[in-house]
Amino acid sequence: MSLYHFHVTQIKRSAGQSAIASAAYRSGEKLYSRYYGETSDYTRKSGVVCAGILLPSHAPPEYADRETLWNAVEQSEKHPKAQLAYSFDIALQKEFTMEENVAMVKQFLTDHFVSRGMIA
Hints:
Layout: E1 6-12, H1 19-27, E2 30-33, E3 38-41, H2 66-76, E4 83-90, H3 98-112
Helix pairs in contact: 1-2
């Protein structure tokens, strides 16, 4: 199985972006940023099909919590021009059910990122 479309966007402080706000938007959640001292609330956002965190075996288990993970990222990256994360837009295939598409994306993320020690 292959993906039709794959687009990558960088989340960067120099562009005025917050990893917490980006994660809240993409997951449709309400998250608090200790770095910026503000809450990003996207609980009324529709269209979130699936939101999860895939951890490599060496990652701290508390990083399975989105707010904990992204606050740790914001805290660890000190530089004002820090690149905090990547965002991937992956087009789903209409020939497959939503469950099949979600499974395919999770497998892709596991094979290409988590297996290399990254959190997805």
